[in-house]
C-alpha cells in the first residue's frame, strides 16, 4: 500500500469496517452544486427564452466552482488534493487491467480511473463556462465578454460551447455508470460517502483529514470576487 492511498480488500467483511471522514464539507458542496448546475444548464439551454438570464448566472457559478476546486486541489484538505489521488499513467493502466478482471481494490480517495475522470469532468465544465462568456444565440443572449472578440471568434466559441456540452453529458453518464457499478458490484456506496463525507474502510488511514474553515472561506471569497470582476469587466 503506498502512502497516498488507502487500499482495502475487494470485499471486506462488515465487522472489519470503520467509518473514516474523507470528503470535507466544501468538496461535498462543490460536488452536489456541480450536479445541480449541470442539470439546470441542460434544462435552461434547451428551454431558451427568458430563463437564459439564469442560465448565464449559473454558468458563472460553475466557473467559480471549478476555480475553487482547482485551488482546493492544491492546498485544500488531505484527500481532496490532486497529489493524493492523481496517479501516474502506469499505475492507472494497471488499475484499469485489474478493474476489467474484477480484481480492482478499493481506495480511500478517488481510485486512479476515478481521479482522472474527475479531472476530465472539471476540464469540460471549465471549457463550457469559459466559452459561454463569449457565446451568443443570435437572438437576445450574449455572454458578458462577447464584445471582446470578433464575430467569427464568437461563433466558433459558441459552437465549441454546444459541442462540449454533449461531451460533458457523455462523461457524466460514464461517471454515473461507474457509481452504479461500485454500488451494486463492489458494494461501495459512493453517493452516501459524498453526502456524509465518510467511507467505510478496513484499515486505518496513515493521514487524518486536515480541513480549515479559514482557508475554505478565504478561497471562496477570492474566487467569488474574481468571477464578479471578470463578468463585469466590459
UniProtKB/TrEMBL annotation:
<dbReference type="GO" id="GO:0005886">
    <property type="term" value="C:plasma membrane"/>
</dbReference>
<feature type="transmembrane region" description="Helical">
    <location>
        <begin position="54"/>
        <end position="75"/>
    </location>
</feature>
<dbReference type="InterPro" id="IPR051542">
    <property type="entry name" value="Hydrogenase_cytochrome"/>
</dbReference>
<keyword id="KW-1003">Cell membrane</keyword>
<dbReference type="Pfam" id="PF01292">
    <property type="entry name" value="Ni_hydr_CYTB"/>
</dbReference>
<dbReference type="GO" id="GO:0020037">
    <property type="term" value="F:heme binding"/>
</dbReference>
<dbReference type="GO" id="GO:0022904">
    <property type="term" value="P:respiratory electron transport chain"/>
</dbReference>
<feature type="transmembrane region" description="Helical">
    <location>
        <begin position="213"/>
        <end position="231"/>
    </location>
</feature>
<keyword id="KW-0812">Transmembrane</keyword>
<feature type="domain" description="Cytochrome b561 bacterial/Ni-hydrogenase">
    <location>
        <begin position="22"/>
        <end position="197"/>
    </location>
</feature>
<dbReference type="InterPro" id="IPR016174">
    <property type="entry name" value="Di-haem_cyt_TM"/>
</dbReference>
<keyword id="KW-0472">Membrane</keyword>
<dbReference type="GO" id="GO:0009055">
    <property type="term" value="F:electron transfer activity"/>
</dbReference>
<feature type="transmembrane region" description="Helical">
    <location>
        <begin position="165"/>
        <end position="184"/>
    </location>
</feature>
<feature type="transmembrane region" description="Helical">
    <location>
        <begin position="20"/>
        <end position="42"/>
    </location>
</feature>
<protein>
    <submittedName>
        <fullName>Cytochrome B</fullName>
    </submittedName>
</protein>
<keyword id="KW-1133">Transmembrane helix</keyword>
<feature type="transmembrane region" description="Helical">
    <location>
        <begin position="113"/>
        <end position="135"/>
    </location>
</feature>
<dbReference type="InterPro" id="IPR011577">
    <property type="entry name" value="Cyt_b561_bac/Ni-Hgenase"/>
</dbReference>
